[in-house]
Every structure is written in structure tokens, then in C-alpha cells.
Amino acid sequence: MSLALVTIADRPDLATIVGEWTWREWGRAQGETLDQRTAKIAGRTARIGLEQCVVALIDGKPAGTASLTAEDSDARPDLSPWLASVYVVPRFRGAGIAPLLVKAVEAAAWRAGYPRLWLFTDGQVDLYASLGWTEHGVLHDHGKPYVLMRRDRRV
Q1: CB 119 within 8 A of CB 105
Q2: What are phi and psi of 51, to 5 degrees?
Q3: What does pTM read for this prediction?
Q4: Burial bucket for residue 17 (CB in 10 Å: 0-12, 13-18, 19+)
Q5: N- or C-end of the chain: fewer Cβ atoms within 10 A?
Q6: d(C-alpha 66, C-alpha 51), whole Å
Q7: Is 90 exceeded by the pLDDT of residue 74?
Q8: What percent of the chain has pLDDT over 90?
Q9: What are phi and psi of 149, to 5 degrees?
């Protein structure tokens, strides 16, 4: 099994599948259309800085994704940047793909000079804590409570 990380900037053809994954997981419940979510993903083509999307490929096939984005929650527009939309295809969960995606987005943020990243989650607190993220309260997004987490750059 070979694992590679690519970006939407390098592989724009992957925006459709990533858009579908993230729309089914979060976008539909937030009132987005599939086309809106796919366009959002397709626009994450920065090579440095905000609006990047990383995709994990296993044996050349898409297996997961994560993004570095300026905003991820309407509830906290004061916080930025965000680790957003960490998703791993169910059959590949538990194989270490999520930590690789998280670390890739963190590295992109640190290369761009950001001292801190934010995320919110409703079920993966232990995963993120194991990767050095700390809890910073509760965030309500689209009427649902989530754990707000932060990761500071280590210098």
C-alpha cells in the first residue's frame, strides 16, 4: 500500500470527490448545496497560506482530506486560521491517515507564518489531543455544540 499527499492545487480533478465527501459529512446539514461545497473545495488552491486542501491518496485513490482555511465557523469569525474538514474514507479509518493530514495542514500553517490554528469537533477530541491540540471551550455552530480546540506553533 502506497500513501501520498497531494493538494487540490496539484490535482484539481479531486475537488469533485472531496466536495462530495465533505458535503455529505457537514455541508448538507449546514444548508450548502453540493455545487457550493465543491466550488469551495475547488477554490482551495493556494500554494502558501490560507485556502489549501490536502488529499491523501492510497495506491493513487483518494482516501481522505483536510484543509487550511480562513474561516470555518460563522460563530467565531474572530478566529483564524482553521484546520477544517478532516475526513477519512470509512474503510481507511484507523490507518493513521487523519494524523498525517492534520500534520500536513499544521506544517502548511507554520510555513505561512501563522502562530496558531483552530478547529472544532464533536467526536475526535482524543485524536486531536494526542496530536498536541488543547481544548478551549465550546463553540455553537449551526445550532450544535462542538469542542473548540487550538494548536500553537512550537518554536
Answers
A1: no
A2: 70, 60
A3: 0.94
A4: middle
A5: C
A6: 11
A7: no
A8: 86
A9: -130, 155
H/E element, 125: helix 125-130
- Rounded-to-integer distance, Cα 71 and Cα 86, Å: 14
Q: In the structure, what pLDDT confidence band is assigned to residue 14 with cuts at 50, 70 and 90?
A: very high
Q: How far apart are CA 127 and CA 87, in angstroms?
A: 13
Return mean pLDDT, the chain.
95
Give pLDDT, residue 154: 86
Q: How far is CA 108 from CA 21, 38, 48, 113, 128, in A?
A: 22, 22, 7, 9, 17
Minimal CA–CA distance to 69: which of 101, 109, 39, 96?
A: 109
- Asked if residue 119 has pLDDT above 90, the reply is yes
Q: Is the pLDDT of residue 94 over 90?
A: yes
In contact, 54 and 105? CB cutoff 8 Å:
yes
Give whole-number Cα distances, 154 to 62, 119, 131, in Å. Answer: 30, 17, 12
Distances (CA, A) of 153 to 55, 100, 113, 118, 139: 22, 17, 9, 11, 22
**Given pLDDT bands bounded at 50, 70 and 90, which one contains residue 29?**
confident
